From TrEMBL:
GO terms for cellular component: cytosol. Gene3D superfamilies: NADP-dependent oxidoreductase domain. Keywords: Oxidoreductase. The keyword Oxidoreductase applies. It comes from Anaerotalea alkaliphila. Signal peptide: none annotated. This is Aldo/keto reductase. GO terms for molecular function: oxidoreductase activity. Residues 16-305 form the NADP-dependent oxidoreductase domain. It holds the Pfam family Aldo_ket_red. InterPro entries: AKR, AKR_Detox_Biosynth, Aldo/ket_reductase_CS, NAD(P)_OxRdtase_dom_sf, NADP_OxRdtase_dom. The lineage of its organism: Bacteria, Bacillati, Bacillota, Clostridia, Eubacteriales.
Amino acid sequence: MRFVELKKAGIDISVVGLGTNFVGGHNLYNNVSEDAGIRLTKTALELGINYFDTADAYGLGRSEELLGQVLKGRRSEAVVATKGGIQWFEDGSTRMNNRPAYLRQALEDSLRRLMTDHVDIYYIHWPDNETPVAEAVGEVMRLKEEGKVRAIGVSNFSLEQLKEAVGAGDIDLTQLPYSMLDRAIEKDLLPFCVEQGISVAPYGPLAYGILGGRYGKDFKLDPKDWRNGIPLFKPENFQENLRKADALKEMARTKGTIPPNLALAWLLHQEGIDAVIPGAKTPEQVIENAKAADVLLSGAELDAIGGILG
Ligand SMILES: NC(=O)c1ccc[n+]([C@@H]2O[C@H](COP(=O)([O-])OP(=O)(O)OC[C@H]3O[C@@H](n4cnc5c(N)ncnc54)[C@H](OP(=O)(O)O)[C@@H]3O)[C@@H](O)[C@H]2O)c1
C-alpha cells in the first residue's frame, strides 16, 4: 500500500482507504450482514489499509461499534475518520444538528462506540443551515484542543459554507461527492480546496457501483434500493452513465486493470485528492480496490478518459 501525508494535519493515510457505509448497515436496504462487514474491514487492515471512514449515523451507531471491535488492540495502526451532526431519534427519523452541545455529545458517543479516546479526523457530516458555521466549527476546534480530534473536516458544505468554516477554524479536509460520473465539484469547490490546501475526500468514488463495471443495460434497482434517490441512477441519466462505464471498462481491459481501479486511480490523479475511500460489500472487493494504489495513468490516458467523460 502507498501512503500519503494529509497536507495540513500531518497524518499518514493509505491512498486507498475503506468507506464503511455498508459495515453495520447505513441504509435500511441493500446492506451486508454484520459478519460480512467485520470480515471486509479485517481484510482491509490485513492489506495495510489504515484509513477507515465511518459516521455515527451509519447504522445509527452500529458501523462505529463494529469498526471499534475490529480495531480492538490495533487502534494505533488505524486512522479513524468519523462524522457527527446528524441526530437520530427512537423512531429512526433523523435531522441535521450542528449545535455545539450536540456535536460535543455526538463525539463523546462516537468515542465510546469506537472504544477510543480520540478520532483522527472528525467531520461535521452535513450543515444544518441553522447553527452559525463559526459556532459549530468553534466547538470542534475546542474538541481538537482537548486532544479528542486530530484533524477537522466538513462534509456536504457549499462553497460559501466552506469559506465560513475556513474563516472559523483549521479545516483539514472536506468530504464531497466526486467520481468520473459526478464532477460537479470541479466548478468551484475543488479549485477552492486546492488553493487553500484542503484535502478533498471524494465520496461515491465508484458512482455507487456503476463504475464497478458489472451493471449492464438490463440492470434494474429494486424499488426499495436507496440509490433510486441519486441523480446518477435516475432514468434520464442512467443509460448515458452506463454507456460511459462501458467505454471505461474497455479502456481498463486494454490497460490490464479492472474498471473500479481505473475509476479510483483517476481520482487519485486529480489535484486536491490525496486518498479514496471506496465502499465494499465483500473482502474480494476490498482486495481488488486496494490495487488501485498501483495504477498509474499517463497524460495520454487521462486525456482519453476525458474524451469518454465528455
Ligand atoms: N459524507 C457523506 O455524506 C457520504 C455520503 C456517502 C458516502 N460516504 C462515504 O464514502 C464511502 C464510499 O461511498 P459509497 O460506499 O457510498 O459508494 P462507492 O464507493 O461509490 O460504491 C460502492 C459500491 O461499488 C461497488 N463496488 C465496490 N468495489 C467493487 C469492485 N471491486 N468491483 C465491482 N464493484 C465494486 C459495490 O456495489 P455492488 O457490489 O452492489 O455493485 C459497492 O457497494 C462510503 O462508504 C462512506 O464512508 C460519505
